[in-house]
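Quick question about two entries, pasted in order.
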Amino acid sequence: MASNNNEHFNRILTALKNGSILIKEKRNGENYSRLFYLNENEDFISYYQPENVFAQAHRYYIKDIDEVHIGFYSLTFDGILRHKNAHLAGENLAFTILHNNYRNELHLMADDRRTRNVWVSGLKHLIDTQAQKRQRNLIRDTNWILSHVRFEDKDKSNTLNKAECKKFLAYSLNVELSEDSFEKNFQKVNKNGDGNLTPNEFIDFFHILTRRKDLYEIMQKYVKNGDDQSIETICMTTNELLHFLQTVQNQKLLNYPSKQSKDNFTVQSIMTRKQVQELINEYEPNIELQKKSLLSLDGFRNLLSSDDFCIMQPWCSRRTYQDMTRPLSDYFINASHNTYLFDNHGNDKNNPEVYNQALRAGCRVIEIDCYDGHDGQPVVKHEYSSVKAYPFESVIHFIEPNLFKTSPYPVILSIENHCSIKQQKEIARILKEILGNRLITEPPLSKSSWMLPSPENLKHKVLIRSIKSSVPIKDSKLLKKNEKFDNPIVNNGISDLFIYLENVPFRDYNYTKDHYMCLQLPSLSEKEFKQTSHSDPLGLIKQTRKCLLRIHSDNSNNPNPIDPWNFGIQIVAVNYQNNDSSMELCHGKFLDNGKCGYILKPNYLMHSDKAKFNPLDYLIKSSNKISKNILEYPQRLIITIISGQFLYRSNRNKNDISNPYVVVSTHGIVCDKQVQKTKFIQNNGLNPLWNETFEFEISFPQMCLICFDVYDYDIYSHDDHLAYFCLPLTTIQTGYRHIYLRTKDRDSTYSSLFVHVVIENT
């Protein structure tokens, strides 16, 4: 069966390499036909330019392609249809390629349905294959390695001389070797000594450079006579590996009853040699060593760099494991602000695809600003910028397929309504027609109820957040002086859409306990939060027991989400387009619980009356002994930053090589805020070694996030932020772990840190 499947895709990929005439559609309605093709090494698609066009054809690298959609999926095709530049019958010929982390789109039309399907099938196969690659695959990917030979081989000799190899090291691997080290390794692989490396010699050269001496030293500790074994021959037996996994790693294994489902698994302890042999069979590349039940250094690297053995407990990130039957107010909720903007405020760049990007990232609250359109139909735009307006109906059509792809739990559409009554009716019609029975239009509970429904009760449902009022806003006595709110929803046909989350002004606890119901959602600014959290901290926490509270920034900068979370505020609305520390923390927070967008609060925030928890009581270490009513168990976190692998430059156009250092920080209750950093390693982004150990005393582990940030030291200017990873302390696996880093704009990378983790109860 597998053989037949491979033959099928080989035929498809051959067809793509031969090329097809495809029509490229542009947003402005222009189009042109080109002969598109997949290059011979299957790492990008491109097209042949006409002879009279001197611009270089664009390359769309497979590693940068996120998804392929068939039909008139994109708003570009939607606009073409609306302007009658295409016919609905053409939907069977259309497909869209989303790339560059969903920032860009390529819209294509084939001549016939079969050609379209061949391209879509082939590209999806290549994307799936690429998605399974990790750093360990990259190191053994001959095509990837040889692509650098072709790129650096300027004289087309099919060899690389010393100068070309040094350029490869500097520009591709981000490392500068000492002259002695370079010569030693170069001469080791240059068999005839002519100063030029053949492709096979270059592969050997690359493998020597990427050999993990840090892992070799670990293996020496846990194998018999380890000091006598060389880096080339060292191996672990099944008994040695079993001992290592049990005593050093405290490792658990995921058992999948079906290979078809990655969500369905059980967590098992490692108890038997049979389990260890299965790991050797999976990760040891040498078949002969597999038969002898031995794990080489390459196999050891493959094992420790696999997803199940990385720093985050895989059962925390891959499925929902927390109690989802509590009221909505008992959860922190992944929320966005100004969702439709791609860049920071002041820029005129936007793309409705960012709604889907946020949903795919687990966001459960997205904001849609609605204004009157010129043709009687509401549009989505940003009031204070020149971003393009998109039809509201097109946006809802566009996001509907992605609402529950990542998470089955409820989505909150925050409708910032600036429309006339007539176009408000259109908003209601559109939502009802497109969302159907997924749209909540009736409360399952009576309005007198003091408790919100649970995420479990609202699975696959859409809730609307907006203002609901029977009087004009300017006459409402609820509003404070100079407080701005959107146009009220007053028409009976629309008001029933806004059942649960009515947008109301923020008030102090004494007012809200008598006047607000659980179905109302107060929103407060950063300034209001800071004032209230200091003047009435317990009252602020009490408000979050009944109602959802939302905090938003006073400007285009993101609020620091840690402080609101410490007071139990569920919805911290962040600008996803900002590349800042707040987004890093949000990404880390919501990796947990299967990335479903809902994180259960600690008991002391859910039951504040009993716990009497006040974050202001814990501003410094030992300032106040933790109350017995607060169920927290302090821990000591000991982290050794051992090494880094394949660290990227912040700017590929820069000539200098990175001088990386690592900042480790803890974030949570104020007394747990700590920062420590390593020294910088000069001119080595390929395999820097630190071996520096840090200790962190954590009083409130349930609220603590750990951030790993890699910077490039620069003596002349500010240090560039290269990459990061953030996760909750409660999800960390102890032992030797890899951390796969993300760039500052949250793109995934092959870059990693290698660390050792110990967690002790104190």
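Here is the second entry:
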Amino acid sequence: GSLDGKYKVQRHGLYHLNFKVVSWLQVYSTRTEEWLHSLQGHTNQVTGIALNPANHLQVYSCSADGTVKLWDFIDGILIKTFIIGYPLFAIYVSEKHEGIVFLHIGFQLVAVHLPKSAEQEVEAKELSAVSRHISPNPSCTAFGREGQYIAFARNLQLNVYFFRKQKTYSFSLKATDKKGAKNAFTCIACHPTDDCIATGHEDGKIRLWRNFIHKKEYTYSTQHWHHNAVNTLCFTPEGTNLLSGGIESVLVQWQYGTGNRKEFLPRLGGSILHVSTSSDGQLFCTSHSDNKITVIESSFKVCGVIQGLVKGDAVLTDLMIDPRSKALVLNGKPGHLQFYSLLRDKHLYNLDIVQQEYIYEAGLDQFEVVKAAFDIKGYWLATVEERGQKSSDLEFFLKLWSYDERTQSFVLNTTITAAHTDRIISMCFSSSEETTMLVTIAEDGQFKAWCQEDQNFWSCDFVGSYHNLKPTNCSFSADSSLLAVSFQEVITIWSPDTWELLTTLCQPPGVIRDLCFGRLSCSKYLISTTTRNLLCCWNLLTCFPVPPRMNIIIIYSAAMFVFKPNEPRPLFTHKNVCSEKIHRAVFVPREEPLNNCDESSQWLNRSQLYFLTQNMDLLTFSTATEEDRMLSSSTRLVIDDSVAVTPFYLLLGKHRQQQQKLNTPSHQAADRPQQPQGSLLHTPAHVLPPASVLCSMFVSSLLISNTGEMESSEQEMNSEKEEEDSEGEMEACDSQQELRVQGSVDEVTPKLSKAQERELKRVRKTDFSWMAGLIASKP
């Protein structure tokens, strides 16, 4: 990924929506670790990203779809798309080569001149090859001092191409040194201001190459700390330090020019795959093999962790749903179970099952979590951890964990060291809400039922077997009244109350692999699969397959079939789900059922299907209704009218509405665009401007404008003036008439002044009815 002082841009890919592969970039805040937005537009996997040297608020991305896209990653806007026409595997940029990007096409490094055009999409036709011997590893190519040269390594050969000379100098190493260590190149970094190239090697050594401008006078010095291959190298912007990382999960900081002086930041998680620095050198960023990004201050202190779905070597447990948090649960960090929120698309936490320090060393036999199961309430969790491949070296423990309301996590309740004499194959909890029972089956030919004692600890309640056959799987019915245990090609049905063997079912050819009871209206059916890719459904009321001989369906490794238990014809079929084999799958119940779904998507109304591939890619199916709902929710910025009316709104909201009606002509009201009310409430706080900038704007928006009052007062004064003029004229006429009639009268009745008459009118208009109640209440 690319890193600047505030934002982390990460490439990300996922199978999503309508069975199409989409790949996008995700932008995170390095301060809050929160996801800001996604940059969507590529139709295939994003293979590389690089900040635009001319504008650090923009980022280039390349993809296997044959395009280079330029983004404004702050606002999440696609600026331009450059069509290259070939699958792209990496992108490199340099400040000296403005308007040119260097792309990894096949085994070639190609310089592409980006045309300047006003169009959104433009085809880049001017391509020139720089080298035809590029390593498929993007970490083995880097630009040198101020873009004067580019260094690239492959196998045992280092090449330096000088742009001014247009020449390539090559330097080779032997396959092994005197001690037999491997010298193959694994990564490259160039010093930003000095003619120095740092190279990492398979044996863990770091070589600093100098004087390579003169082909025959080159020298190199060696530094060594990593015990395995060096995965990544990066110089700080000033060139004072060199950062390195590998499988040890330790970030090493070498002081440039001081020999072997170094600092360490250990226990960062999975293997370090990539290191980058911010443009000001204040932040470092490491990406790890477990799908984690660590943000580190220049003082070598971790200040942030961005964790996705933890990606390990393999998922040994099933995909499970925690009944309490509705989180997806599966293998996470070595020796842990991870809880991942599918609704928020966010990693919640890791539960340490093994409770031992994991040593990152290849070939070391360590404990792993291989089985896990929840009870129906989510109060109990059962886990199995083991190490050792052979039966003679096998060690395993059965652990039961109870949920602690105080810590909001699971705590260890019981550890059973000798649950069986051989490896545990499968286990399941009863579905009854009254009593909790755990059944385990193992390769020793037995199945055991475990129940709680009076002290709330667990002990064995029953041990069963069938004709010395090896059990393969087990399952409780929906009401826990029946227990099905498969032995090779036979299914046995037991009563958990009396542990009586009720009946046996003869399975079609093939060892039984999976076993599951139906739910709700299909609870009378029992479904099983075999190692011969056969699917069989049994009706437990008749003890016969349903329907006879029509229930054998072939399941393809990369295809998806959805059945009703009582119908042999699938409801839904999709053969090209992905290019890999589907490894695990789980139905996740929805909080609210979907409405208005297509007939082919009715099976997704109440639950959503998630499935995992062998490459640890999590995929899902969704409907067009969900897409429309997510699109509308993501673009909605205006507060709904259903939001509760607050006293603050009653104080200022009505006045504003009246003021807008007065100030806005009726014929312009429909044409004028509305301002997004409450947009601050929908904008993440970490991307808003400083509070000092918003304060004056916010306070000004709350003040009641006096424009309307001034206009009304002016209107009142004008009306009063007109009234005074008319009254003056009337008074002049009346006075003339009175003088004519009463000309002989010596004494005239006194008259009120104009100001006194106006005041008298106002007093007459005043409502004094409230005083009546006050006077009446007096004794």
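Reply: The chain has a mean pLDDT of 81. The radius of gyration is 38 Å. Hope that helps.
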